[in-house]
Design a protein that fits this description.
By secondary structure, this protein is of the alpha+beta class. About 30% of the residues lie in helices and about 30% in strands.
């Protein structure tokens, strides 16, 4: 069993990409973290904001964004979910567990190369390490050195040479180690276990045993959420369309990566934009065609947001979408007809995005036996359709005459281009007593030109044309 650790030594900084340097993150009026250029001015975490600004006048400060930090770790865990289902998320990084020396993408070196490439592509700087224990991999990653240790390597010897500050121990233990003049993990491991247990308690001894693989590690594994949520803060207020589209494409790409790894798709999603003036714009998209193409989603959002007018710059973009698992099952070999239908639905989605939700409408079925009231105009996509399979109901035409056209009668036979000939049994309709009673007797009739009609007879003996069969 091997553990791959990905740690962000400066996680509060990583969630603010492309910020002007020198740059720092503050929390509760103290400097929480700063970049390398700020450190050249003598800045250190823990300084007050006033002291940091005095030492470094050009310092750019941002308040810590814990929501963005959690979103970054969730994104990394989601990426790792495509490699292994055994993932542990901690406050500074992610751990991935593999049951042997080989990963789904090859050996350990290929695995680390793929993970590092993904982080670099997203613009993140992280430390990556591989070791037989989760705690050991975390410590190697925190040390900053690219470590690749397997069961057959001298990973325990390498671990003993690291400073003991990398261990997660109670503060009294740190103070005691400093008083004893200890500097390395190995020196702490060499102390008698019985003395450590009496002085610091059993938890410290168990921590050291789990570190060296002498005691099983108990971990809580990450469970992927059923809904995708992501929020990207912009490094500067974006007022141009190109700048907004860059970050919009970035967040839709993250979404599509999320759903592809689950072999899923989205039918609806919500995009929100936050502005400098503290206002926000939220747009919900409902798709007729299931989608997982980032370019298509970006184009739909672009069409919708092109109609939004604002005089304030955009400072953050968020996207939320529940995903649906593919349930297509076995597909036919020839899919030309299905592909054409999907293209039409995609066109209607683009029209809704460009013209508005109310611009595209459809005809939907309405539960009323009266033909003139059995269809209703609804927003696209409709939740129910006029064309329904109902084996117990006689066939009705789609082409209706509104209002019904009166027919002439000769010798008690209705006429239309000549006498009509009845086909089949009549259909009796008597309903609507609550809002306009209708009592009719419907027939399928054929004209001398072989046209199939749908006609009915009213209670007073008059005949009317209701529709044409195709």
């Amino acid at each position: 069993m091997l553990w791959l650790a990905v740690m962000f030594p400066a996680l509060p900084l990583e969630v603010f990409p492309a910020c002007q340097t020198p740059f720092g993150v503050v929390e509760e009026r103290s400097l929480l973290a700063c970049d390398d250029k700020a450190k050249t001015y003598g800045l250190l975490p823990g300084m007050s904001v006033a002291q940091a600004c005095a030492l470094c006048p050009p310092l750019v400060l941002r308040t810590r964004d814990r929501v963005a930090e959690e979103a970054l770790l969730e994104h990394l865990a989601d990426f790792a979910y495509g490699l292994t289902p055994r993932i542990v998320v901690n406050p500074t990084g992610v751990l991935m567990n593999f049951t042997d020396d080989l990963s789904p993408v090859g050996d350990a070196r290929v695995l680390i190369s793929q993970v590092a490439g993904h982080l670099q592509h997203r613009g993140y700087r992280a430390h990556v390490a591989l070791a037989p224990t989760a705690m050991g991999a975390s410590i190697f990653a925190r040390s900053g050195a690219l470590s690749l240790w397997t069961h057959n390597d001298a990973w325990r010897l390498a671990l003993r040479s690291l400073p003991w500050e990398y261990l997660s121990l109670p503060k009294p233990v740190y103070a005691a180690c400093a008083d004893l003049g200890l500097s390395l993990i190995g020196e702490l491991l060499d102390l008698p276990r019985a003395g450590l247990r009496r002085r610091f308690g059993l938890d410290v001894v168990h921590t050291l045993e789990r570190l060296m693989g002498e005691r099983p590690e108990i971990n809580t594994y990450w469970v992927p959420p059923p809904v995708f949520k992501s929020r990207i803060p912009l490094p500067f207020p974006a007022g141009t369309e190109d700048a907004v589209l860059y970050y919009l494409n970035r967040i839709t790409t993250i979404l599509c990566d999320f759903i592809r790894r689950r072999d899923a798709h989205v039918r609806q999603f919500t995009v929100a934009l936050g502005y400098e003036d503290k206002t926000a714009l939220s747009e919900k998209f409902t798709l007729a065609r299931p989608e997982r193409d980032a370019a298509v989603l970006t184009r739909l959002v672009r069409e919708r947001l092109a109609r939004a007018k604002t005089h304030s710059g955009i400072v953050w973009i968020s996207l939320e979408a529940p995903f649906e698992t593919n349930t297509e099952g076995n597909l036919s070999f020839w899919r030309e007809e299905e592909s054409q239908g999907q293209e039409v639905k995609g066109l209607l989605d683009r029209l809704r995005a460009r013209l508005g939700n109310d611009a595209v409408r459809a005809v939907s079925w309405y539960p009323d036996y009266r033909p003139e009231r059995a269809a209703v105009e609804v927003l696209w996509p409709p939740t129910d359709y006029l064309l329904r399979d109902d084996p117990g109901r006689p066939a009705h035409p789609l082409w209706l005459v509104d209002p019904p056209h009166p027919l002439t009668v000769v010798d008690k036979v209705p006429q239309l281009s000549g006498p009509l000939q009845f086909v089949g049994d009549p259909e009796r309709l008597e309903t609507g007593w609550w809002d306009g009673a209708a009592s009719r007797e419907y027939f399928v009739a054929v004209t001398p030109r072989a046209e199939r009609l749908w006609i009915f007879k009213s209670p007073d003996g008059r005949w009317f044309l209701q529709g044409y069969f195709g």
